[in-house]
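Fold this complex.
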Amino acid sequence: MSLNIIVLAKQVPDTRNVGKDAMKEDGTINRAALPAIFNPEDLNALEQALRLKDANPGSTITLLTMGLPRASEIIREAIYRGADTGIVLTDRTLGGADTLATSYSLAQAVKKFGNYDIILGGRQAIDGDTAQVGPQIAEKLGLPQVTYAEEILDLKDGKVTVKRRLESGVETVVAPLPCVVTVNGSAAECRPRNARRIQKYKYAVSPSEKEKLSDDLKAVVEKRPYLNLQEWSAAYVDADPQQIGLAGSPTKVKAIENVVFTAKESRTIENNDTELEDLVKELIANHTIG
Amino acid sequence: MTDNNNLIVYCEYEDGKVADVSLELLTKGRVLADRLGVKLEAVVIGDKLDNIEEQIFPYGTDVVYKVEDKRLYPYTSNPHAAVLINLFKEIKPQICLMGATCIGRDLGPRVSSCLHSGLTADCTALEIGDHKDPKTGKEYTDLLYQIRPAFGGNIVATIVNPDCRPQMATVREGVMKKEIKDPAYKGEVVALDAGKYVKPEDFVVEIIDRHIEKSKVNIKNSPIIVAGGYGMGSKEGFDLLFDLANTLGGEVGASRAAVDAGFVEHDRQIGQTGVTVRPKLYIACGISGQIQHIAGMQESSIIISINNDPNAPINTIADYVITGNVEDVVPKLIKYYKKNSK
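Structure:
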């Protein structure tokens, strides 16, 4: 059985490696100083999609992402690893969205996309760590959800069997298709890029990127449909302007503060036997240990 | 606009025992409800809920809603979401708190999406305060300030839901303190008919296998924690920390980077995306001290930092700084402890 698989992914600033130059003097984030990466758990989700495709030849994987036009970078990344194509949902009016407005916008794009069997995505994105968009999309589409997925064990007869990784154990569940599955970071790592696919798809571009190509390259892209990624606007997915962006977000950011910890007066202990033994004796004497 | 509606906590339980995180939220919820002059309510959904309210009342809970049906245990998303959605339409709570657990983080978004209510994940502080919309100038009193780290813990954001109800937030285990208000506190039990809140077609996902183990790791309640960072280099590198922890009668914790690298299991992770701890003694070994880690251990009574780098950020909040190799220092601490303790 060939499947129509949607993988939800996000291009995120790499918050795991925040250097000193990442924060501006006024305490706000200098986004330009942070590299934009493929959200790690979305790569775990992509791997599960690729395994479904391996098991079900003829399946297609479409990456769906919402963000700036440059988010087409992660679509190419996904294609190099085995995805088929991708859509960037991009529009100025989508900016400033909280998780609810984001999930509404993405759910509208999924509706526009139409025929799909399963939607996969990472559990959460590292720039917000909320894990809310997956379940909210499921609710907006009226679909069941399976969160914290570690492995898709089986997919047949319109049902998917999934192993979930919980705080205190594992659970195996069966859900009817279509459904939304969010994948945990403990799932299998994504396979690497494939050299032949890089060759074939390096000029896969979105319409706005195509505009910037030379005439020769533009002609190449136009001759090959598989090199044309899609860009969708809010209007194209019939999004209600009242439910997207800042206007569609029930949560508002009231204040943002830089994190400052109060420094303590530290005592320096030299790394020698006398001082270390004295420290241990002191901790025993004041009943901290022992 | 004043809101006289109540505050409700969704209580999780396993093996007939209400989860610590739910009791922590009831403790916080009582404080917030007093500030607002409203009732503290709780909702428990599941099976075999006999007398479960006795665990909930002592935290100052005024009303416990019980929704009992054998199909409602173990937890699945749609049925629990349906119960909350329908219950909230009826009782219109102004605030709903849930644990930022696998259950709360699965359930909260589904409920908030349906009610269009707004939800803030993983709050580290909750307060009541006023708000003025910067654009419209409209003023709001007594909103829930949902305070949470963002951007990998590099900033702290205060989030409000001015217009939508309930204002929903999740909080991780250990972030709030659990404190009984009055062991004799008694509220009202409201038993609800599950059939009115959940439809047969909500039971779409079937659990075919479930292995829940009591977590063997109990870092939250350990008075002594020996924590390692990415600098420990490997699983084997952590063996030394287990030796020290066993010698001192403590537990081993870890930074997010060490957990991500697979050196130790996830239940040992300390920080904003792990557990918050307040031990008597915290020994940080090879931990540089990313903000997100410090936020989860800064309330420790005594902090010792062992690090090669004299300028490691964690040193600024440490009581004792030992500059040196962990491999070098830790065996000496073990040796001198054995020598000097009785």
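Chain A has a mean pLDDT of 93.
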